[in-house]
Amino acid sequence: MHNEEMGDYRIENHVVAFTENRVIAWVPRRPGQRPAGDRFTWKLTPIDDVHTEVTQTYDWAAVTHPAEVPRLPVVSAEELDASLTRLAAAVA
Questions:
Q1: Could you identify which of 5, 20, 32, 41 might form a hypothetical disulfide with 25, taking C-beta atoms 3.0 to 4.6 angstroms apart as the criterion?
Q2: Contact 87/79 with Cβ under 8 angstroms?
Q3: Any idea where the domains of the chain sit in the sequence?
Q4: Whole-angstrom Cα distance, residue 52 to residue 18?
């Protein structure tokens, strides 16, 4: 990962919910550290035999560390949209 504030850094994503072809949720964390409390979820809803609607949720309600709260949301709406665009390109 990379951002202006922290430069280059590593993140591990830990899957916390999974139902095949329906949902995957993960929490990011720095290697060796506890998760901050934010959670990403992709909900998959089949539209027909070829198409699937993907709804992405970014939930930071569980973030409680005083140094982290003022920085929320860490991921912007534009970055979330870009994530879905990359997903669409990967499966096209």
A1: 41
A2: no
A3: 2-91
A4: 17
